[in-house]
């Protein structure tokens, strides 16, 4: 029988032991960061690491924000500035944030800190059932971003065989999967759906590709999208949560109900967005604040990921004892007020993937032509529809959106191929009000 856990000892520590280990590592990291890193020398000068003896004590430490990282990076020396906590000569890996919102942050990793990230990813992949027998196809050119580099190295460490699929177009990638008989893949949910659509256009049933499992990265994935991918490829699809600044920090086990925080590699707090001094209870939504505990090159202490997540239980039928996250609600900065109603773009994806399989690509555009906000959903059907069918579809979409979001949308069914296709992070929500 194959082993159930990548690290049986760490993955089954009691909650008391996990908390003890995490707080001890946190204190060490704090002491190190205050003496080696300009950002924390300034930010945490009046915090004594010896005063941190419980999770409650963490509240005295200010959160680190992306703006802090940018500001301290600016002061130099180039390129990492005041976030670097080791000798520059020790840095062996350059990565950067994707910079979809503002200036990118450059992320320095030493050989040791990179290996730490890879080990964390081994937990994520092993949890998702990746094993030695898998030939893993990665349909991306990885570039300077973190996405898929960690996955690549971790898959090798697990004993998988890795097939990098950069520098090919989508059709070329589908042919490569067929040629080498890859049986596992990692991709963004958006690209996974796009590949399935493209395979069908080539006359290939995605189920016949022989993929046994897919791990998704890069975007929050609603449950309906995960199920849609499972249906399209006839295989198991897993999710994870992560970010460039803090690494992948939670993964999905075979139960596929929520995600396990990779403890004790991270100390994760889920805080009330309106009262950051309070940790939320199980079932409540909070802001994920993450401290990676094994990385010295670039310490991130109580980093505000801006991810809104639902706190889950501390037990699971898989036997792991780590804290679970039930769901990623979305990025706090993606939530918008439209006509006074709080709106999450993820709710539309959920609705489309669960109830409207005839819709493929879509985008939401909010504008303010006069005094009122105006929202348009432009949706592309997966197969051409007649005029009458398109009008019916628009009507039923508009009704279901009104029920789900309390907002009135104008729904336009547009011809196939009208909307942009995305390979990494999709940008399906456009708020033009800020520019008007
Ligand atoms: Zn589990």
Provide a brief overview of the structure.
The chain has 11 helices and 21 strands.
Structural class: alpha/beta
Mean pLDDT across all residues, rounded?
Answer: 93
Strand line-up in the sheet with most strands? 8-9-10-15-14-13-11-12
* Contiguous uncertain segments of 5+ residues: none
What are the distinct ligands in this entry?
zinc ion
In this structure, how is the largest beta sheet organized? 8 strands, antiparallel
Q: Beta-strand level of the residues, as a percent range?
A: 25-35%
Can you give the helix content as a percent range? Answer: 25-40%
How many helices?
Answer: 11
Compute the number of strand runs. 21
Terminal-residue CA separation: 62 Å
Computed CA radius of gyration, to the nearest angstrom: 22 Å
């Amino acid at each position: 029988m194959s082993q159930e856990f990548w690290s049986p000892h760490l993955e089954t520590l009691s909650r008391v032991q996990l908390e003890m280990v995490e707080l001890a590592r946190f204190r060490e990291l704090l002491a190190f960061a205050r003496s080696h890193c300009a950002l924390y020398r300034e930010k945490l000068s009046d915090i004594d690491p010896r005063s941190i003896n419980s999770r409650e004590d963490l509240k005295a430490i200010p959160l680190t924000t992306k703006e802090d990282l940018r500001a301290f990076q600016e002061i130099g020396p180039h390129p990492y500035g005041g976030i670097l906590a080791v000798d520059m000569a020790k840095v062996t890996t350059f990565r950067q944030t994707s910079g979809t919102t503002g200036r990118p942050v450059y992320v320095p990793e030493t050989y040791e800190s990179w290996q730490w990230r890879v080990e964390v990813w081994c937990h994520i992949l092993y949890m998702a059932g990746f094993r030695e027998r898998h030939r893993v196809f990665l349909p991306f050119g990885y570039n300077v971003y973190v996405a898929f580099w960690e996955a690549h190295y971790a898959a090798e460490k697990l004993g998988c065989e890795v097939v990098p699929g950069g520098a090919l177009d989508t059709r070329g990638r589908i042919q490569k999967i067929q040629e080498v008989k890859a049986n596992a893949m990692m991709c963004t949910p958006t690209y996974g759906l796009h590949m399935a659509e493209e395979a069908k256009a080539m006359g290939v049933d995605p189920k016949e590709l022989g993929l046994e499992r897919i791990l998704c990265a890069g975007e929050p994935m609603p449950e309906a999208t995960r199920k849609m991918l499972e249906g399209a490829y006839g295989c198991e699809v897993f999710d994870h949560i992560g970010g460039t600044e803090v690494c992948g920090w939670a993964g999905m086990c075979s139960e596929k109900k929520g995600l396990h925080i990779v403890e004790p590699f991270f100390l994760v707090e889920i805080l009330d967005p309106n009262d950051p001094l309070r940790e939320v209870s199980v079932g409540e939504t909070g802001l994920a604040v993450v401290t990676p505990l094994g990385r010295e090159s670039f310490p991130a202490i109580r980093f505000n990921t801006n991810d809104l997540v639902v706190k889950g239980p501390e037990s699971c039928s898989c036997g792991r004892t780590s804290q679970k996250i039930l769901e990623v609600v979305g990025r706090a900065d993606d939530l918008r007020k439209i006509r006074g109603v709080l709106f999450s773009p993820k709710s539309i994806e959920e609705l489309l993937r669960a109830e409207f399989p005839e819709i493929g690509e879509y985008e939401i555009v909010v504008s303010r032509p006069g005094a009122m906000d105006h929202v348009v959903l432009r949706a592309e059907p997966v197969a051409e529809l007649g005029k009458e069918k398109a009008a019916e579809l628009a009507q039923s979409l508009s009704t279901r959106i009104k029920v789900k979001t309390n907002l009135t949308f104008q729904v336009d069914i547009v011809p196939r191929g009208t909307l942009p296709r995305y390979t990494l992070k999709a940008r399906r929500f456009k708020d033009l009000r800020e520019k008007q």
